[in-house]
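Exercise 3.2. Students should predict the tertiary structure of the chain below and write it as structure tokens, then compare their answer with the key that follows.

Predict this chain's 3D structure.
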Amino acid sequence: MSRNRTTAPPVTELPADFRAFHQLYRGPYVHWAELYLNNRADAEEAVDQAFEQLYLIWDQLLQSQNPNAYAWKVVKNRTIDCARARGRRPVLVDTAAFETTAVRDAVDEISELEEGLHIYAAIQALPERQHDTVVLLYCLGYSVRETADILGVSEAGVRSTARYARRRLRDALQQPSERGEK
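Answer key:
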């Protein structure tokens, strides 16, 4: 953690509930941020800055209706800030298609790559909640329960959001002839 501004004290002095929260969520947060920043060190820095921010408001955060949802927003915003500070945009579309097993094992790798790029472009176009759910569930491989916990929503909410997202993706990815267009 950086020391050139008001920051959290050494880890041993942090409240037990904050340390537990940090231990539970730092890994998934870094995993998500690394996907977007395409750099482990930048992801760790963004997430550590998010945790510093969360520590500074920890007591109020615990009193809030949904601490996990608030923490998720802070992590997302810090990740976006980190990308902007480095003059980059999130790289999900740039790299995720290259990392799929289907692409690595495809007989026709170019068409698989093209399909993968269309899929990830469609994911990028989803509304925020659907996008986050799809990325956590299908791109990063978290379970429904883990995704619900990370996002601060119910498991039923994750399943419902994923269902709507899949419908949108299916509609976005249909060929014009499949939609009845010419």
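Discussion points: The radius of gyration is 18 Å. The longest helix spans residues 16-37.
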